[in-house]
Queue: 4 jobs
Job 1
Amino acid sequence: METIFAVSSGAPPAAIAIIRLSGEGAFAAARALAGTLPQSRHAALRALRGSGGLLLDRALVLAFPGPDSATGEDLVELHVHGGRAVVQAVEAALAALPRMRRAEPGEFTRRALANGRIDLTEAEGLGDLLAAETEGQRRAALAVAEGAIRRRAEGWTDRLLALAAQVEAQLDFAEEDEVDQAAPPAFAMEALALADEIATLLAVPPVERLRDGLRVVIAGPPNSGKSTLLNVLAERDAAIVSPISGTTRDRIEAPVVRDGIAYVLTDTAGLLEETPDPIERIGIARAEEAMRSADLILWLGDDEAPQPGAIRIHARADIAARAVVPSGADLAVSAATGEGVPALWSLLRDHAAMLLPREDAVAVNRRQRDLLVLCTDSLRAASGQRDPIVFAEELRLAMKALDRLVGRSDVEAMLDALFTRFCLGK
C-alpha cells in the first residue's frame, strides 16, 4: 500500500503546519528529508532537506510506530513553519519520493478504521466533530467519537453471543426425541430485555436535529408578516418584504445559531384555499410540505393552525387594529418594534430542550438508528419464537445488524460518502 501525506492542521498561512505521513514507507520518507528520526513519540528538531541537500525548513519531527498509532500504521508528523511556500516545498519533496502520494479526503481516518483503531460509529462521530459549530453539536459528536456507541454495541454483542451459545448448546446436546423442544422462557426474556435496553437509546431525539439544526417553519396566510419575522429572527434581509400579496413564492431558508442551538428558519408562501395562479399553487404545495417536515411551526394566522402543536404568533402587534391579542395566541410579536422577539426566542429555546438530545445523552444518526431498529425487531421476533432453530436465526439477524452498526460487515457502500466529508489531513 502506498504511503500517504497531507497537511492536517488547516490551510496555510499559519504559525505552524503539521504534515502527516502514514504507511509502511513513512519512516523511510521522513529519513530522506530529516536524516535520523527521534526516539518514538519524542519531538526533536531536524533540518528538512530536499534533493541535492537544499534546506527546506527546520521542523519538529515525531515518529509513531504502528500498529500503536492513530492510523494503525507507521506515522510521522513534521511540524514545519506554516507559510505557503514552506508547506509547498516540503510536500513537493515528499511527492518526489517513490511510492508516496497525497492523501484523499478522510484517508487517514479510513486507514484507522481498516486497521481496527476505531470503528465505524467513531469515524462518523469524528466527521460530525469536524463539522460541529455549536456546543451541543460538539458534545454529541465527541461522545460518539470517543466510543459511546461502540461500548454499548460491544456490551449488547457479548450478551447476544452468550444467549446464542446457550441456544446452540440446547440444539447440540438435545436427544433425538427432544429436537422439537421449545426454547426455554428465560431465552425469550433475555432477548426481550435486550431489545428494551436498545430501545432506550432509540428513544433519544435524533442527532440530526443537533447537527443540521431544528427546522422552524414560519407559516400563515398571505401578508401575515412571515418574511418580516424571518428577517428579524435571522438579523438580515434573507427574504424580500413587500405589501404585495404572494411576494414569497418558494421556501426561503436561513440558518441561525442562538443560545448555542442551531435552527433552520424557513419562510413559506402564504396559504390560500384557492388561487388561479399556477406558480402560487406550487408555492402553497411546498409550504404545506415544509410544514409536514418541520420540527416546529410558527403559525401567524388568526385562525387555528392547520397542524397541532404549532406555536401561534399574533404578528404585527404594533398595528392599532391588532392591539387586542386573541385568546388562542401563544405570543404577541411586532417585528417592526421588536416587541415579543426575545420572548419568542425564549419560547423556541424551551421547545428545543424537548426536541434535542440532553447533554448527557448519546444520540444516534439515521444509519445507526435504522440498524438498531433492525436489531430490536429481530430480538422481539425471537422472544415470540418457541422453535429454537428459528430463535437462533433471529439472534443471528440481530447480531448482523450490530456488526453493520460498528462496521464489522457490509460498510463499503457508504464509506466513500462518509469520508468525502473529511479534510485531506484527516
Job 2
Amino acid sequence: MTAKMRNPRILIVTPEVTYLPDRMGSLANTLTAKAGGLADVSAALVSALFEQGADVHVALPDYRSIFSDRLAPFLKKEQRAILDVMPEERIHLVEDSSFFYLNRIYSGDGFENTKLALTFQRDVLNYILPRVNPDLIHCNDWMTALVPAAARERGIPCLFTIHNIHTVKCYLAHIEDRGIDVASFWKHLYFERPPVDYGESWNTNLIDLLTSGIFAAHFVNTVSDTFLKEIVEGRHDFVEPSIQSELSQKYHAGCATGILNSPDPAFDPRTDRMIHQCYGPDNHAAAKRQNKRFLQASLGLIEDENAPLFFWPSRLDPIQKGCQLLSDILYAAISEYWEAHLQIIFVADGQYHKHFRDIARFHGYENRIAVCHFDEHLEHMAYGASDFILMPSRFEPCGLPQMIAPIYGSLPVAHDTGGIHDTVVHMNAAENKGNGFLFETYDAGGLFWAIREAMRFYSLAPEIREIQIRRVMKEAIETFNYDVTARQYIDLYEKMLDRPLITG
C-alpha cells in the first residue's frame, strides 16, 4: 500500500463468502454462504489482503441456519451457543430474523430478496460503517448497491463490483420502511426519471439498484474486461439502457475496469480427492486415461481410453449457455466421429436436460452420451477424465469452467465472448501456444467447426498432444488463481486511495 496509507482499513460488503482466514476469528473457517463465484472471490480477496497487511473487515448477513448446519458436525450441542456470541472483531454479521431461517442465500421470491437486501444494508449503514470507520468500501452486486451512495455522501471511496448484470427496482418508501435514512443520500441514487424532489419521488419514481451502485460508486469493475467493453459498446440487448449508459460514463472517465474471477482452489487435480486418480502436468497422460476408463464404466459408456471425451459443465440454459447449438448438431457430431467413439457427458441441470436425454434415447446413443444431473463429485470426475469441455455461451460475464478445465488438462471448445475471450486462446500446437478452440460466429455451424478443430488436435501424435497439455496445465495453474485476482484488486484499491474524491 502507499506510504500515505500503509495499513488501510477496508470493509468488504458481500451477501456471500466462503472460508475466511483463521486470523479473522475462531469461526472464520466455518462461516460459508455460497450461491456462486462471488463467495469464493470474497474469501480469496480477504486472504490476500491479510497477506498484504491490510486491516480488512467483512460485513455479511448472519445466515444462522446455514452456519449452524455447517458447524453441526464440529460442535457439540452445548457449544453451538457460541453462534449467539460472535466475538470476532473483523467479521460483522447482520443479525436479523430475515436471515436466520434461510437455507439458501437468496429467496425464490423477488420481493423477498429486495427486503433481504434492504435489511442487510440497513445494518451495514447504521451500525457497521460507524463501528469500522473504513478507509475504503468494496461492495458487490445489487444487494449492496445503496452503500456506494451513502459512501459518496460521507466521502469514503467505494468500489462496486458487478458479478451479475441482474438488477432490482424499488421506491424510496420501501427503503425508508426498512429503517434506512435514505433522505441523507437519495441524490446519489439512480431514478427511472429525473426526480423533482424527495417527496415527489417518494413512492412514484422507481430506483434502479444496480444502476445506483454504478452511478454512485467512485470506481466500478465487472468480472471480465471484454464483457465490460461489450456492455459499453451496446453489444448485449439484455443489458438495460441505464446500466449501459452509466457503465459507459464510468469507463470513459477511467473509473471502470474488468478483473477476472478465479476458480475455487479445490479444483486442483494434484490434490482433488473427488477424482479417481490425482495427477499434475508432468504425469497427466496415464492418470487421465485411468480416470476416463473409470468414468466410462461408471456411466455405462463404451470403455475406450482413446475415445475423445467432451464434457458439458454449465447449466442447460438456451438463453445464455448455447445448449441449443449443440442439440442441433449432436447427432451429426456423434455420427461423424463414430469410429473414434466420440463421447459427451453432461453434468448439468436446466431446461434442455430432458431434451438431450431424449436425443440419446431416440438414437440409441446412451453408450456414447451420458446426461447426468449436477453433482459436485461427478463434476470433478468429469474434469479429470475429459479431453475437452463445451462452452458455446452466447454471452459470458466471466465464466469459470473455461479456467478450471485447462488446470485439469481439458481444453475448452467455446464461443469467443466476454470472459471466455479473456481466458482462452485458440490452440496452435505448431507455434506452442493456445489453450482451447474458439468460434466467432454464434450458431450451430460455428460450434461444429470448433469441435472439428478440437478433433484435429486430438488426431495429432500422442507425444505432441502430451507436450501441449503439459504446457496448458502449467500456464493455467500459474494464471487462473486467486493470488493473481487479488493482486489486481489491491492495485485498484491503491489507485482509489491515492485519487482525490468528488463527494458532491
Job 3
Amino acid sequence: MVAAVVTISLVDAAQFEHMGLSARDGRIVARESMPPPPSSGLYARRNLDGWDDKRTDLPKEKRTITTWAPSWNSGSYHPVSREFDAYPVDRHPAKLLTISATVLEELVDGALVRFRVDQPLDRRQSSFEADLQFNLRLLNEAVGEAHVFDADLSSDQYARTQRVDWELLPPGSADRVLEHLASRGNVNADRLQVAAERLQVLDRLGHDGFILGTGKFARYFGARFGDSLVALENLEYGNAMYVFEEDWERLTQLSRTDLIRRRDPTVHRIPHVKGWQSAIRELIRSR
C-alpha cells in the first residue's frame, strides 16, 4: 500500500480539507474516502480523467483525419481527408482511486493521521511498477509525502513508523522549554507547574542542552548529557522518566509497553515516586 503518516496540528487542518480533514471541537476529524481534487496536480487530473501517452519509442504510423468543409456556393458540406505520420498513442482510462484519511492518534494540539491510497498492490502483477509509481505521485501531490507499506500493517504499526524531530535548546533555557510546551495547546497550569519542577531537577545535573519532541512526541521534553545519554520526561502526571544510555532516537519510537518488555539494560525507567530526584541524580553521575 502507498501511504503516509503525517502529524497535523489543529491550526493546519484546513490545509488538508481537500482530503476530508476538518478541525471540530478541538479535534481533527476525518471524513469518508475520496479522490484528490484536480487542483492537487497532474496525477490527480489523470486519476479522474485518464490520459494519453505518446509512444515516441515506436515507429510512426499512417493516420487519416477526416473533417467537414463547406462546399463552394452551395450551403452544404463535404468530407475532406488527409493522411499524415504520427506516433502511436496509448490511452489510459481514469483510475478513480480514492485516498482514505484515518486519525491514528490524537495529540496535544492535533492528530497523527494516515493517508492511504485505497489500492493494494501485488508485486506479481505485470502492472505493479507502473501502479506503484502512479500511486506514489498521486499521494505525494495530495499530502506532500508518500511511502510504501505492507498491506497487512495495523493502525498501531503505522503510528510507530513516524519519525520524530527533536529540537535542541541550550542549557539555561528552561523558560523557553516551558513556553514551547505551553504553546502546544490543551496544557493546563498544573501540568506546566509539574514540568517546571522536573526541568529544575534536570537543570541542576549539568546537562548539555534541553530536548523537545514534536508531533506525537509533543508532550515529551528532556535533557542531553554528553553525546549519547538522554533523560526524557512527559507532561502527564503519572508517567515515569526514561533515561537512554545509547540509541535513544530509535528507542523513543517504541511504545512504553515495548520499552518495558525489552528489559534493555541501557534503558532506565524511573517512576515519579518519593526519591525519584535522587535516583536520576545517581544514575546520571554514575554514567
Job 4
Amino acid sequence: MARSKDKTPRTPKEPGRLKQMWQVFQMTRRYDSKIVLYMILSFVVPVIIGVALALVFSPGNALTMTLWIIAGVLAGILTMLIVLGRRAEKAAYSQIEGQPGAVGAVLRSSLKRGWVGSEMPVAVNGKTQDAVYRAVGRGGVVLISEGPQSRTNRMIEEERRKVTKVLGNVAITVISVGPDEDAVPLHKLAGRLTKIKKTVTKAEVLAMNNRLSSLRTTMPIPKGIDPMKARPQRGK
C-alpha cells in the first residue's frame, strides 16, 4: 500500500530537438512535395562552395582546406534548417488559408519585431465571416481584410475613418488576404508588413496602439486559428 501511494503519475517527456525537427519535416513533407529537393540543394551548394574556396585559397594546405570544408558543411546545415523552417511555416498556414480567423493566427504568432497586432478582428461580418484586422508598427497603421475585397471594402473604409478620427493624418496601409488576384498570400503576410516604409518612431507606435485600443469592439468574436493545431481539410 505504501509503495502504491508513493507512485505519482509521470509527466510525459517533451520530444528532443532532433525528434521535433523530424516531426516538423514529416508534417511539411505531407503538404510540400519539393521539401526534400530544396533541403538537399540548400545543404549541397554551401558544401561545394566551401570545397571550391579550399581549392582556390589553400591548395596543398591540408589543415586550411579542412577548415574551409567544415565551414561549408556548417553553412549547409544552417541553410537547410532555415529552408525547413520557412517551408514548414508555409505548409502550416496553407492548411488554414481561406478559413475565418487565419489572419488572426498570423498576427498572433508571426509578427516581426516592432509590430503590434491582435488575433481578434476589429470588424466582422457575422453572415459571411469576413473580417478586418489591425496592426500598428513603424510603418503606421495597417488594416488587413480577410475575405473578398468586394465584401470587405465597406468595412475597411469604416475602420479607416475611425483610425483617422483618433490619430489624424497617420499613414494607413490596406492589405487584402483573400481570393482576389492582387491579395497577399497568408504565409507572406508577416513579411509584407516589414516592407512598409517606416514613418513613425517606436514611442509613437506605443502611443498609437494605446489610443486605438479604445476602438476595440466588445462583441464576442472567435479567436484566430492555431496553424500548428489545425486539422487538414478533407481531400487534400
